[in-house]
Design goal:
The chain is built from ten helices and 13 strands. It is globular. The chain starts with a strand and ends with a helix. Strands 8-11-9-10-12 form a five-stranded mixed barrel. By secondary structure, it is of the alpha/beta class.
Length: 283
C-alpha cells in the first residue's frame, strides 16, 4: 500500500473557523491551525491534500491560512443538503478515487512524543506495513465517551499498541462501553477512542456510499461504516506515541497550545513562566 493523498474535513457545523484560528508553533511563531495540520504530514510521503469545507466557506481564507504548504492543495465544498461526517468524506471521492488515503479531522491538533516522526507519519507507516484500514486511537476516560467513536478489540500478538478491531461504536454510553468495548490492558474506566486520524481504504468509501444511497437526505457517520467493514477485511487500530487535542472542547485550543510549546525548543522558558503564574495561586 502506498499513500499519496490525504483528506482534511473542516465542513462541520461550528468547525468552519477552527482551521483559521491562530496558534504558536513549536518554534514560537504564530501560524494558523490549518498550517499546523499540514505540517503534521511531514515524513508521510503525502503529496496531495483535499480540504473539505462548507458550501458557505470562503476558499480564499483557507488558502491564505494554509500558507506555503509543501503539498498540492485542493478545496472541495460539501453541499448544504449533504450532512454528516460520512458525507464530508464522500465529497472527496472524486479526489481519492480508488486509492487509500489518510483522513484527518479539521478540529484536532496532534502532538507527537516521538522526536523523529509526527503522529501522521507513525500511522501511515503502520498502514503501509499492514496494508489495511487503520484507525489511530487514544486511551480516553469514560467521562469523554460522548465525544468520540470508540473501538473494542484484541491486542495483536507480539505487536505492542496494535489492535485487531472487533467493534466500533460512535459516542457510546459508559454502560455500553463496559459491556462491549473493553480492551485488554487498559486502565479501569478507560477505553480506546478515535484519535481523529485514519487510513481509509476503498472498501470503507464503498460502504459510506452504500449508506448514503440507502438513507438519502440523512446524515451518515464514519463509525457505522467502519463497524460494517470489520466483516469485509482486516481492520486494525494503533495507539500512537502522541496525543490529540480537540479544539472544540472547553480550553481545547489552550491545551493544544501548551502541549505544542512544551514539545518545542522553548520548553524550559515556558515552564518557568507557568510556575511563576501558579505561584500566587498557591500562596
Amino acid at each position: 500500500m502506498k499513500l499519496k493523498k490525504a483528506v482534511i474535513t473542516a465542513a462541520g457545523k461550528g468547525q468552519e473557523q477552527i482551521p483559521l484560528q491562530t496558534l504558536i508553533n513549536r518554534q514560537g511563531e504564530p501560524c494558523s491551525a490549518l498550517s499546523v495540520q499540514l505540517a503534521e504530514l511531514s515524513g508521510t510521503g503525502i503529496e496531495q491534500v483535499a480540504i473539505v469545507i462548507s458550501s458557505e466557506a470562503d476558499e480564499s481564507l483557507y488558502r491564505s491560512a494554509a500558507g506555503a504548504a509543501s503539498v498540492e492543495l485542493e478545496f472541495i465544498q460539501q453541499p448544504a443538503d449533504l450532512i454528516g461526517f460520512g458525507h464530508a468524506i464522500l465529497c472527496a471521492r472524486s479526489f481519492t478515487k480508488d486509492e487509500p488515503f489518510l483522513l484527518m479531522v479539521g478540529d484536532h491538533i496532534y502532538v507527537s512524543d516521538d522526536e523523529t516522526r509526527t503522529c501522521a507519519a507513525q500511522l501511515v507507516e503502520v498502514a503501509q506495513q499492514k496494508e489495511c484500514t487503520v484507525s489511530a486511537v487514544q486511551p480516553t476516560h469514560e467521562s469523554q465517551l460522548a465525544q468520540f467513536g470508540t473501538i473494542g478489540g484484541q491486542l495483536v500478538a507480539g505487536q505492542n499498541g496494535l489492535y485487531e478491531v472487533t467493534r466500533v461504536k460512535e459516542k457510546p454510553t459508559p454502560t455500553y462501553a463496559e459491556q462491549e468495548l473493553l480492551v485488554p490492558g487498559q486502565r479501569v474506566a478507560y477505553y480506546l477512542c478515535f484519535f481523529g486520524m485514519h487510513v481509509i481504504t476503498p472498501v470503507v468509501m464503498d460502504e459510506l456510499a452504500r449508506s448514503a444511497k440507502a438513507s438519502p437526505g440523512q446524515p451518515i457517520g464514519l463509525s457505522p461504516a467502519l463497524d460494517t467493514c470489520i466483516e469485509l477485511g482486516k481492520y486494525l487500530a494503533v495507539q500512537l506515541e502522541g496525543r490529540r487535542f480537540n479544539l472544540e472542547q472547553r480550553y481545547g485550543l489552550l491545551k493544544a497550545q501548551v502541549a505544542t510549546a512544551l514539545h518545542g525548543p522553548h520548553r524550559d522558558e515556558l515552564l518557568t513562566e507557568i510556575i511563576d503564574l501558579l505561584a500566587p495561586l498557591r500562596a
